[in-house]
Design a protein that fits this description.
The protein is an alpha+beta fold. It contains 36 helices and 13 strands. The protein has a 6-stranded antiparallel beta sheet. A hairpin with a 2-residue loop joins strand 1 and strand 2. The termini are far apart.
Length: 854
C-alpha cells in the first residue's frame, strides 16, 4: 500500500465504517484496514465525523473533485452572491434568480469531494423532505438540479432571519411572547410529522425568525438529517440507518445519543423541542459541555442519556452573574422569573425532556396543547394529578365568583369531583394517544433493515403489514378507528382506493361502537369515505354519505365552525361532480359564510373554498364571478399556504381558465406556464394535478389554433391520468378523451375524433350515470362529428339527447344548452326545423345577454 491512500478507497471504507454498529466498528476496522497509513486516515475521518455530529463531514485533507463555484458564478438559472452557511456535506449560497421571476433564494450545493452514495442519498432525502411539506413555518423548496460538473443542488426559500433564541433575546420578549413564538415552531414540526418526516436536528440555528408587517414568523430550515418515514408515496422505499450519530449533541434525544437510531421516532423531535423551550425560558440548555467536568462529545452524550434535566429554577440559579441579564431579556428580574418558571412551565419542559420516550408527550400536538393551556391559565396534563391543583387553577381563573361567602365550600367540593373525572378523561386520552403511537411505531419498525432481512421496504408494504395488525386493537375501538382512518388517508394518497375504502369503513364501524352514530370521529370518518367515493368516481354514493355528515353536524351543538364549513364545502363539491351546480354554489357559498362569520379567513381551507366556488360559477356560465372567486382563492392561498404551494398552482391554472373563457389569451398563457412549472416541481410529473393544468393549457392552445401544441398537452394529460386512475376509468380520463376528440375533429381526423368521443361517452355513462353534464357534452360532441361524417340520423339522435339533458340540468339559457340547440339544427334533415332551432337559439342568447346586463 502506498503512503497516500486513494480517495476512492478512503471514501468507500469511510462509508462502510459508518454503516457498522458502533460497538463492532473497531473490530471491523482492524479486519478491513490493516495498513497503518490507511487506518490512520480512516481514524481521523471518523473522529472528525463523531465530533461534529454531522451525518458525513467532508473528509479533511482529501483532494477536491472540482473547483467550488464562487460569487458571481451561475448554477443553472441562479447567480451566486455569497456563502451564507456550511454544513458537513452542503454549502448554502445566497443566490439570485431572474427568470421567470426575480427573487433571492438559498441554493444548497453538495460540497465538492463529498459525493459518496450515502451523502447523495441524504442530500436527496433533504430535498424530498422539504418538497413533501407545505406550511408557512417551513422553508419551501423551489427547484433542484445539477451543475455542469454533476454536483447536485436544490433551491429553497431564502430566510433572512435570526436564530430563535437570539431573536427572542434581541427583542426582549416576555415569557408569554416566547411561548407564542414556540407554538409556531410546534405547528411546523407537527406538520412535518404528519408528512412522515422527523427533523432530528432541531436547534436555534435551524429555527429562524423573520418579521413581516411587524409580526414575527418562525421558519424551520435544514432537514439535512431528517428521517423520512415515507420519502415518496409511490416507488421510494423507507430506510433506517444503523450505527450513525445524527443530530447536534446538546439538542439530541437520549435515543439519538445511543447512535443506534432504532428507537428514534417523532418523540425525538419532542425532546429537542423541550430543549428549545427550556433554553427560551431560562436562557441555558439543560446540559452544556462547558458545565461538564469533561467537555468531550462522549461526556455530553452520556449526560443526555443518563442525567435528569434540572428544574428550570435550579438551572437559573446556576447561571450566577448571567442570571440578571437573562431575566432582563425576559422583561423581569431574577426572583420574578424564578416564580414564573415554577409550576406548569417547569412540568411541561421536564415532561418533554423525559429520558424514556414513552414518558414524554406522545406528539408535538400534545406538547403544544399544554403550552396553550399554560398560557390560558388552564390545567396542563404534565402536572402530577391532584384535585387541589385543579381547584387552584379554577380559583385563579374565577377569583370574583369564588369570593362570594357561603358558596365557596360547595363549589370546591363539586369542582373537585368534576376535575377528578376530567383528569380521568385526560388520562384516558393520553393512554389512547400512546397506544396509537405504539401501533404506528410498530408499523414503521418494519423499515428496520435488521427486521426486514436487510432489504428495502416500500411504504405500501408497511401499510399492508399494518392493516393485518389492526385486529390487535379490536378491544380499543377508538384507537383502532384512529389508526384505520390514518391508514385510509395514506392509501388514498397512494391511489390505492379499494384498500382506502375498506379501512375507512372499518374506522366508521369502530367509531360508531365507541362514540355512536353522531360522534365526532364517526362523522369525520364518514367524510373520509365520501372523499374516497369521489376519488373512485362514485359521486352518488359520496352524496348520500356527505349529506349524512352535514345533517349529523347540524344536530351537534358543539360542532366547530371549521368542521361545519368543511363538511358543507365537501357537500358542495359532491353536488358539483354530479352536475348539480346551483346546489353546489349554495353549499360552497355557505361554507365561506361560516368561516367569515367566525373570522377564520386564515385557515388553509379558506382559499380552497373560493377555488371550488369559482369552478362552480364557471360551470354555470358566470365567468366574471368565477374570475373574482379565483382571485380571492389565489390571494388567500398565498397568504395562508405560501407562494410556492400546489394550491397556488391550481389557483393560477383556474384563473387562467377563467381568463381564457373571456378570450384574454395573453393574460392566461403565462399563468398556465407558471402553474405547470410549479406543480411539476411540487407534485412530480405523474400527479393528476399536473394533468389538469396540461388539459386546461391545451384548450387555450386549441383556441389560439396552435393545434400541434394543444395535442401534445392533451396527450400528456391523458397518459398521466391513465397511469394514476388505472384501467377501471375515471371522469377525468373521459375529459381528456373528449378534448382529444374535439382537437381531432378540428384537424379533420374524423374517425379518430369519433373513437375518442365514444370511449369518453361509455366511460362517463359508466362512472357518472345518464343524467350528468359530462354525458351531455360527450353526446353533443359525438353528434357534431357524426354530422360531419354524413350520418344525420345517428347525429340527430345524439343531439336531441344532449339538448334534453342540458335543458334539464343547466337551464334553457345556459350557453351549453344553446350550443346543443345549434348542434341539433345542423343535424336535422328538414331545413324549416333547422331554421326554427337557430332562431330559438338566437332568441335565448339575446335573453341571456339582457338578463346579465347591468
Amino acid at each position: 500500500m502506498s503512503d497516500s491512500p486513494s480517495w476512492s478507497l478512503l471514501r468507500r471504507l469511510f462509508d462502510e465504517a459508518l454503516e457498522q454498529p458502533a460497538e463492532r466498528r473497531r473490530e471491523w476496522l482492524e479486519r478491513e484496514a490493516p495498513d497503518p497509513t490507511l487506518r490512520s486516515r480512516l481514524d481521523a475521518l471518523l473522529t472528525a465525523h463523531e465530533a461534529g455530529g454531522d451525518p458525513e463531514p467532508e473528509p479533511p485533507g482529501l483532494p477536491l473533485l472540482t473547483s467550488p463555484p464562487g460569487a458571481g458564478e451561475w448554477v443553472g438559472p441562479y447567480r451566486l452572491l455569497e456563502i451564507v452557511g456550511e454544513g458537513g456535506f452542503g454549502v448554502v449560497f445566497l443566490a439570485e434568480q431572474e427568470q421567470p421571476l426575480q427573487r433571492r433564494v438559498a441554493l444548497k450545493l453538495l460540497r465538492v469531494g463529498a459525493a459518496s452514495t450515502q451523502v447523495l442519498n441524504r442530500f436527496e432525502a433533504e430535498r424530498q423532505a422539504l418538497a413533501l411539506m407545505d406550511h408557512p413555518n417551513i422553508a419551501s423548496v423551489y427547484d433542484a438540479g445539477a451543475t455542469a460538473d454533476g454536483q447536485p443542488y436544490f433551491v429553497m426559500e431564502y430566510v433572512d432571519g435570526r436564530p430563535l433564541t437570539d431573536y427572542a433575546d434581541d427583542r426582549g420578549l416576555s415569557v408569554e411572547e416566547r411561548l407564542t413564538l414556540f407554538l409556531q415552531l410546534c405547528d411546523a414540526v407537527q406538520h412535518a410529522h404528519q408528512k412522515g418526516v422527523i427533523h432530528r436536528d432541531l436547534k436555534p440555528s435551524n429555527v429562524l425568525v423573520t418579521e413581516s408587517d411587524g409580526r414575527a414568523q418562525v421558519k424551520v430550515i435544514d432537514f439535512g438529517v431528517a428521517k423520512a418515514l415515507g420519502p415518496r408515496l409511490s416507488t421510494e422505499t423507507v430506510h433506517t440507518q444503523i450505527g450513525m450519530l445524527i443530530g447536534t449533541p446538546e439538542y439530541m434525544s437520549p435515543e439519538q445519543a445511543e447512535s443506534s437510531g432504532v428507537s428514534v421516532d417523532t418523540r425525538s423531535d419532542v425532546y429537542s423541542l423541550g430543549v428549545l423551550l427550556y433554553e427560551l425560558l431560562v436562557g441555558a440548555r439543560p446540559f452544556d459541555r462547558s458545565d461538564l467536568p469533561d467537555d468531550s462529545v462522549t461526556a455530553m452524550l452520556r449526560a443526555v442519556r443518563e442525567t435528569p434535566a434540572p428544574r428550570l429554577g435550579a438551572r437559573l440559579a446556576t447561571l450566577g452573574e448571567r442570571a440578571p441579564n437573562v431575566a432582563a431579556a425576559r422583561r423581569s428580574d431574577v426572583s420574578s422569573l424564578a416564580r414564573r418558571l415554577r409550576g406548569d412551565l417547569e412540568w411541561i419542559a421536564l415532561r418533554a425532556l423525559e429520558k424514556e420516550p414513552a414518558r414524554r408527550y406522545a406528539s408535538v400536538d400534545a406538547l403544544a396543547e399544554d403550552v396553550r393551556a399554560a398560557l390560558n391559565g388552564d390545567a396542563v396534563t404534565a402536572h402530577p394529578p391532584s384535585v387541589a391543583y385543579q381547584v387552584h387553577r379554577f380559583v385563579r381563573r374565577h377569583r370574583l365568583g369564588v369570593a362570594f361567602a357561603g358558596t365557596v365550600f360547595t363549589l370546591l367540593v363539586a369542582f373537585g369531583v368534576s376535575m377528578s373525572v376530567l383528569y380521568g378523561r385526560q388520562q384516558v386520552e393520553r393512554m389512547k394517544a400512546e397506544r396509537m403511537n405504539s401501533f404506528l411505531q410498530t408499523m414503521l419498525a418494519g423499515a428496520n433493515p435488521l427486521r426486514s432481512g436487510g432489504g428495502d421496504v416500500s411504504v405500501r408494504d408497511l401499510l399492508d403489514a399494518a392493516a393485518h395488525d389492526l385486529d390487535e386493537l379490536h378491544d380499543e375501538p377508538e384507537v383502532e378507528a384512529a389508526a384505520a382512518q390514518t391508514m385510509a388517508y395514506s392509501y388514498e394518497s397512494l391511489f390505492e382506493l379499494e384498500s382506502a375504502d375498506s379501512l375507512a369503513r372499518r374506522a366508521i364501524r369502530a367509531y360508531e361502537s365507541a362514540q355512536g352514530p353522531l360522534g365526532p370521529g364517526t362523522l369525520e370518518a364518514k367524510g373520509r369515505l365520501a372523499s374516497i367515493f369521489r376519488s373512485r368516481g362514485m359521486p352518488d354514493s359520496a352524496l348520500a354519505l356527505q349529506e349524512d355528515v352535514v345533517a349529523g353536524l347540524s344536530r351537534r351543538r358543539d360542532a366547530s365552525p371549521r368542521a361545519v364549513s368543511h363538511a358543507t364545502a365537501e357537500l358542495g363539491r359532491t353536488y358539483q361532480e354530479l352536475g348539480r351546480y346551483e346546489d353546489a354554489a349554495r353549499q360552497e357559498e355557505e361554507a365561506i359564510r361560516v368561516l367569515d362569520g367566525a373570522s377564520l379567513q386564515n385557515l388553509p381551507t379558506y382559499g380552497s373554498n373560493w377555488s371550488y366556488l369559482g369552478r362552480t360559477y364557471q360551470a354555470l356560465g358566470r365567468i366574471e364571478d368565477a374570475e373574482h372567486a379565483y382571485r380571492r382563492a389565489l390571494e388567500a392561498n398565498r397568504a395562508n399556504r405560501g407562494e410556492e404551494s400546489a394550491y397556488v398552482a391550481a389557483d393560477l391554472s383556474n384563473l387562467a381558465s377563467a381568463l381564457r373563457a373571456q378570450r384574454k389569451f395573453d393574460e392566461a398563457e403565462p399563468l398556465f406556464a407558471s402553474a405547470a412549472e410549479l406543480n411539476e416541481k411540487l407534485l412530480g410529473p405523474d400527479h393528476p394535478g399536473v394533468a389538469s393544468i396540461y388539459n386546461s393549457w391545451g384548450l387555450l392552445r386549441k383556441q389560439r389554433e396552435d393545434y400541434a401544441g394543444a395535442e401534445s398537452l392533451y396527450v400528456k394529460a391523458l397518459d398521466i391520468r391513465r397511469r394514476a386512475y388505472g384501467e377501471a376509468g375515471h371522469p377525468e380520463i373521459a375529459t381528456s378523451l373528449n378534448n382529444l376528440g374535439v382537437l381531432c375533429r378540428v384537424r379533420g381526423r374524423l374517425p379518430d375524433a369519433e373513437r375518442y368521443y365514444r370511449e369518453a361517452l361509455d366511460m362517463n355513462l359508466r362512472m357518472l350515470g345518464e343524467e350528468h353534464p359530462n354525458v351531455a357534452m360527450s353526446l353533443n360532441n359525438l353528434a357534431v362529428v357524426l354530422t360531419e361524417e354524413g350520418r344525420p340520423r345517428e347525429a340527430e339522435e345524439c343531439a336531441r339527447r344532449a339538448l334534453g339533458l342540458r335543458s334539464a340540468l343547466l337551464g334553457p339559457l345556459h350557453p351549453d344548452t344553446v350550443k346543443s340547440m345549434r348542434t341539433l339544427a345542423d343535424a336535422v334533415a328538414k331545413p324549416n326545423d333547422a331554421d326554427s332551432l337557430r332562431q330559438e337559439a338566437d332568441r335565448r342568447e339575446a335573453e341571456r345577454a339582457a338578463k346579465s346586463a347591468p
